[in-house]
Amino acid sequence: MSLPVDSHNLTDAEKRVILESFGFILHYYFNTKQQQDGGWSKEDYEKLALINSIQAKWALGIELND
């Protein structure tokens, strides 16, 4: 099992891959789940907030804390 990597150890290319994968997650998970009868759960809102936080921090050049 690999150890977690601090965001300051990621290259810009690696961050770009992660950000692009967020786009797929947003489209294929969140958009699909939103259209279902049950909609989003509390955990879904928390996951979305985390994704948005990471995207915003990296866009501003801020590294993630532990």
Task: Label this structure with key terms.
single chain, 66 residues, mainly alpha, elongated
Describe this structure in words.
It is a single chain. By secondary structure, this protein is mostly helical. It has two helices and no strands. It has helices at 12-35, 42-59. The protein is elongated. It starts with 11 loop residues before the first helix and ends in a 7-residue tail after the last helix.
The helix-strand sequence is HH
Termini distance? 19 Å
Figure out the total of helices.
2
Residue fraction in strands: under 5%
- Coarse structural class: mainly alpha
> Could you list the spans in which at least 5 consecutive residues all have pLDDT below 50?
none
Cα-atom radius of gyration: 14 Å
Count of β-strands = 0
Residue-averaged pLDDT, rounded? 83
Q: Looking at the structure, what is the overall shape?
A: elongated
Helix content: 55-70%
Largest sheet, described in full? none
